[in-house]
UniProtKB/TrEMBL annotation:
Keywords of the record: Isomerase, tRNA processing
Reactions that this protein is recorded to catalyse: uridine(55) in tRNA = pseudouridine(55) in tRNA
GO molecular-function terms, A-Z: tRNA pseudouridine(55) synthase activity
SUPFAM superfamilies: Pseudouridine synthase, PUA domain-like
Organism ancestry: Bacteria, Bacillati, Actinomycetota, Actinomycetes, Propionibacteriales
Protein species of origin: Nocardioides imazamoxiresistens
Entry protein name: tRNA pseudouridine synthase B
CDD domains named among the record's database cross-references: PseudoU_synth_EcTruB (cd02573)
E.C. designation(s): 5.4.99.25
Active site annotation, chain numbering: D42 (nucleophile)
Main function: Responsible for synthesis of pseudouridine from uracil-55 in the psi GC loop of transfer RNAs.
Domain Pseudouridine synthase II N-terminal: 27-182
Transmembrane segments: none
Length: 292
């Protein structure tokens, strides 16, 4: 079997399927097991899931350093074991009386650099075992706070819950650093307001430069599998630099070159082929990862 075209597949993940389930579907479509993802989505969540095929899987670790964007609904008045609607209810408190402006004000505390305790059912490893598995096994899991950045957190709507429930639903859009848990924001907002809180809906709208406008549903991929070529993916995600043939020859061997870079940069040969990611170090441009 010939090697599949290396590149990215940007999926609009549906709810009710795991990220690994999406990977399995794309492996079949691409005809290779060499498919990875740039950050999972919970089964309940929908939206942008970036997959790498072939050599592009090596690009994913660098894409995971980029920011992500979400649209979410936070329900105040109910706390759950998983900080989302899939968990068991742990507490309830009246919330419908809350002033929407007080909710908006409370959310400002979560903008900027913050120390966030990840949700206990995260995929973070604790002594070699995933935190969510420890929770499933009945263990009490206490994770350490991590520094994350919330670039934007905007309230779109605040409304009373349905069916007369004493809850308040808050629709938000959020742009944040990779590693930020939207569920944890829902949990912590509920704690700050004394009501408890959890997510009832989560949709990832972007991973770095890849948003819903370039995402394809699984049904669309079944009808016509398409991959974003590696060179196009690199140009979209990183600052780019086109090299002359002498520089390109050095880069193909991973040698340092004289080039002024401002950060992680994608390098291309004169034909437009993507060669490598380089960064400035010790007054020269040095290899981070070579792809040719």
């Amino acid at each position: 079997m010939s090697e599949p075209v290396p590149g990215l597949v940007v999926v609009d993940k549906p709810g009710g399927i795991t990220s690994h389930g999406v990977v399995a579907r794309v492996r079949r479509l691409a005809g290779t097991r060499k498919v990875g993802h740039a950050g999972t989505l919970d089964p309940m969540a929908t939206g942008v899931l970036v997959l790498g095929v072939g050599r592009a899987t090596r690009l994913l670790g660098h894409l995971m350093l980029t920011e992500k964007a979400y649209a979410a609904t936070i329900r105040l008045g109910v706390a759950t074991t998983t900080d989302d609607a899939e968990g068991e209810v742990t507490s309830t408190a009246p919330a419908a009386h809350l002033d929407p402006e007080a909710v908006r004000e409370a959310l400002t505390a979560f903008v900027g650099e913050i120390d966030q305790v990840p949700t206990a059912v995260s995929a973070i490893k604790v002594d070699g075992k995933r935190a969510y598995q420890r929770v499933r096994d009945g263990e009490d899991v206490a994770l350490a706070a991590r520094r994350v950045t919330v670039h934007e957190l905007r309230v779109e709507d605040v409304r009373a819950g349905v069916d007369g429930a004493d809850v308040l639903d808050v629709d938000v859009v959020m742009r944040c650093s990779s590693g930020t848990y939207v569920r944890a924001v829902a949990r912590d907002l509920g704690a700050a307001l004394g009501t408890g809180g959890h997510l009832t809906a989560l949709r990832r709208t972007a991973v770095g430069p890849y948003d819903l406008t370039v995402a394809r549903t699984l049904e669309e991929l079944e009808d016509g599998y398409a991959v974003l070529p590696l060179a196009d993916a690199a140009r979209r995600a990183f600052t780019s630099l086109d090299l002359d043939e002498t520089q390109a020859g050095d880069v193909r061997f991973g040698r340092a070159i004289d080039a002024e870079l401002t950060g992680l940069t994608a390098l291309f040969d004169p034909t437009g082929a993507f060669l490598a990611l380089y960064e400035p170090r010790d007054d020269r441009a040095r290899a981070v990862a070579v792809f040719c």
